[in-house]
């Protein structure tokens, strides 16, 4: 009987260690971030140390933008409203997709090799008077 209990205890211990290892592996994958590039448009480069491209580590589009604005705080007021929403005139593309049309929007996961491109809308111009 004592041998049976030792075998049972050893089996339970192995199973618990395997479960912990599996759970740790899942947690590790959840923590993994991907290096990705964010392309900064010319008008905003003055707020990003004049860099055209910045590499950040992130798991989602939102985390990538957070990392960008954490390392370059002056960018935040140009990208986000006081309420913390991405400004209407700022377009962000994950590869070739506008994030506003992605199902998860800023929660969209990123993978290695992905890039974000920030494109501010440009408005202005002059009314042309044809009678001149």
Can you describe this structure?
The chain starts with a helix and ends in a 12-residue tail after the last strand. It is globular and about 80 Å long. It is an alpha+beta fold and 132 residues long. The chain has helices spanning 2-31, 61-71, 76-79; strands spanning 34-39, 53-58, 90-94, 97-98, 115-120. Helices cover 34% and strands 19% of the residues.
Q: End-to-end distance, in Å?
A: 107 Å
What is the mean predicted local confidence, pLDDT?
Answer: 81
Structural class determined from secondary elements: alpha+beta
Order of helices and strands: HEEHHEEE
Helix content estimate: 25-40%
Largest sheet: 5 strands, mixed
* Unreliable residue runs: 25-30
* Residue fraction in strands: 15-25%
Label the overall shape. globular
Number of helices: 3
Number of strands: 5
Radius of gyration: 24 Å
| Physical arrangement of strands within the biggest beta sheet | 2-1-5-3-4
Topology readout:
Blueprint: H1 2-31, E1 34-39, E2 53-58, H2 61-71, H3 76-79, E3 90-94, E4 97-98, E5 115-120
Parallel strand pairs: 1-5
Antiparallel strand pairs: 1-2, 3-4, 3-5
